[in-house]
Design a protein that fits this description.
Layout: H1 2-27, E1 43-46, E2 49-52, E3 57-63, E4 66-71, H2 77-85, E5 94-96, E6 99-103, H3 109-146, H4 152-185
Antiparallel strand pairs: 1-2, 3-4, 4-6, 5-6
Helix pairs in contact: 1-3, 1-4, 3-4
């Protein structure tokens, strides 16, 4: 039946997007090593509007503990430096002409524990999002059965599929969390 297949694809797509959101959140967590994604959420006030940092300069990782931003417009160097300082990442940029260097300081054990707690919070939000998609899918299946669009057996079969899909996505969230935890705690 075509309607349940489209619904199942939609549920899978929505669960996948919860995982993608988790990965974006994780990429913003500092692990003590430089990553260009660390600056993804930095927004620079430029030309009368807010622009992502990657639209005002090249973001590079020349060394494991250094990020550099080659700003294209000399007039935006101060704005880029200010945006990085105010992004709440605990980073202190150093300007050299149009090049902004951002050294990544060592993380203390206390800060690593804090970041681990934040990672757990992000993972729980992703699990809740996946479970919400599951609940909506189950509700849709009940309604379809009640309206006579699918049989009771089809409802049971599709419910099992939705549950397996949910379990698989929750497992992927847990695996991503374990990987991020390992990354954060690695000295």
């Amino acid at each position: 039946m075509a309607v349940p297949d489209a619904m199942m694809n939609d549920l899978r797509r929505r669960m996948d997007s919860a995982l993608e959101a988790l990965q974006r959140e994780f990429s913003g967590l500092r692990t003590g090593r430089a990553s260009a994604h660390l600056l993804d959420k930095v927004v620079v006030k430029a030309y009368g509007s807010d622009m992502p940092i990657n639209q005002v300069g090249n973001v590079n990782v020349p060394e494991p503990r250094l990020i550099s931003v080659q700003v294209w417009d000399r007039g935006l160097v101060v704005a880029v430096e200010k945006a990085i300082r105010e992004a709440g990442l605990g980073l202190n940029p150093v300007t050299d002409g149009q090049l902004v260097r951002i050294p990544i300081p060592e993380l203390s054990q206390e800060r690593r524990q804090e970041l681990t707690k934040i990672a757990h919070k992000y993972a729980e939000q992703a699990r809740v999002a996946v479970r919400n998609v599951r609940r909506e899918g189950m509700d849709q299946l009940k309604k379809m059965e009640k309206d006579g669009k699918i049989s009771q057996d089809d409802h049971r079969h599709r419910s099992d599929e939705v549950q397996k899909m949910t379990d698989g996505h929750i497992k992927r969230v847990d695996e991503a969390l374990a990987q991020k935890e390992k990354e954060i705690l690695q000295v």
